[in-house]
Amino acid sequence: MATTTTTRVKAAERYATRIALIASLGAFFYGFEGMVLNGAIKAVGTTFHLGALAKGVAGSAGIIGGLIGAVIAGRLSDKVGRKTVLMWIGPFLLFEAIFGAFSPWLGGYPFLLLCRVVGGMGFGAATTVGPGYIAEIAPAAIRGRLIAFRQLEIILGLFFAGLINLYVSKSAGGSKQVWALGLYAWQWMFLCLLIPAVFYIVLTATIPESPRYLVSVGRDEEAKQVLARVSGETELDGRVNSIRKSLGAEGTTKMSFKAIMSSKWAGLVWVGMAIAAFQQLTGINGVFFYSNSLFEAVGFTEAMALQQTLLITFFKIVGVVTGIMLVDKVGRRNMLIGGGTLIFVSLGVVATVFTIAPVVDGKVDISHSPVLGYLAVGALCTFLLGFTSSWGPIFSIVMGEMFPNQIRGGAMSLASGADFLINFLVVLLFPYLIAWSPAGTYWIYCAFGVLSVIFTIRYLKETSGKQLEEMDELVD
Questions:
Q1: Which of 177, 168, 194 minimizes the C-alpha distance to 32?
Q2: TM segments (predicted)?
Q3: Residue 141 has pLDDT above 50, yes or no
Q4: In the prediction, which pLDDT does 302 show?
């Protein structure tokens, strides 16, 4: 009997894992799209005759769309269902893939911005609804690692898009050159977004609806069927009753943002929004701004871009796999504290390098100091390990599971919205900060790293191993 139960539970975990991988495909598109733009942005600037500010707007337009999608999607998923919203995301991704590529003939630069905003709305919605959906279908024992797949898929999206960018650019002789069928190489890079978009559309149609949502709309029998498949349990009346009780008298579909922020859970939502902000303020975008310069200082030439990409990807994958393996054993809070410490120490090293490096023609220059170069590259790799094993994936885990059932959709929108808003501000302000002082910029990131650890120790409560119906216990 025990063997049969174990076999059933293992089969349920495999099924839940498959669902989680599909539900987090929006993150793969997010990484893929970001790297496509990274490879195409110079050519886009040439095609549309853009200045530095206009290129910056093109780069940040996706983040603006992400903010819109994030704010709308959580509450919308309360009304129409998690699966329904995830399925609606696909056309947004297709829109950017197809029309972004042909924007020179469909309206020029303004139309390209529209495509970026529409695509951003898609992956913003996926970033918000995906973690919550996975939290609602995952067994508590492996919930953390299933949500953490999102970070791995972002990394893989970045990596595969980087390989495609490299191939297309080299085959065409540069991203600004015509490659095939009269299209520029950068346009083919955009068209390659069709690959993850089509996979996303096809596969999301195969996943079940969230059992928590099904209970909220009175479809208890369907909820039991889904719970049986993802948990391996056979007696589910008690679980369904527990879910219904956790929804409260008003139910999840009736709580507005205003009601949530004036409820007993307001403090919990503020904690989630702060964790989202600190994830961006740890400097993930800033560190990469100077990554090419750091690698050049230790001998990596522009022609060695693939080797550099492989090295960075290696450390990212090691970090995220470490996080996936440990998060359900060590706990979310401890992982954030440990990873955050590694982050701010690494940032402190980078800041120190820029502080003591010589200044040539008014700019910090580490190219003539191999010791400083290797030290900075080592700190970059350590930073990657710290971020991808903790704050990268665990923000999504915490956001997906820390909020009680009654407010999850709306609270996830607020937390994810804070994530995209701070991301936008960091990207917008970073060039100005670097122009002011590279050393000062990284010391600021280091300080935020320290604050993130202190905040986590003081305010974040552990959610590992708890059923979602127990999250009310996080409220004092």
A1: 194
A2: 15-32, 52-73, 85-105, 111-135, 147-168, 188-207, 265-290, 310-327, 339-360, 372-399, 411-436, 442-460
A3: yes
A4: 53
pTM of the full predicted structure?
0.81
Which fold is adopted by the domain 1-207?
Growth Hormone; Chain: A; (1.20.1250)
Topology (CATH) of 255-476? Growth Hormone; Chain: A; (1.20.1250)
- Report the distance separating Cα 462 and Cα 446, nearest Å: 25
Question: Which of 417, 430, 439 is closest to 352 using CA atoms?
Answer: 439
Cβ proximity of 41 and 96 under 8 Å? no
Cβ atoms within 10 Å, residue 79: 14
Quick one: which of 253, 273, 270, 263 has its CA closest to 213? 253
The C-alpha atoms of residue 316 and residue 278 are separated, in whole angstroms, by 19
**Cα–Cα distances in Å, from 335 out to 320, 322, 348, 453, 456?**
12, 10, 20, 10, 10
> Three-class SS of residue 311?
helix
- DSSP per-residue letters across 174-197: STTSEEETTEEHHHHHHHTTHHHH
CA distance 453 to 397: 17
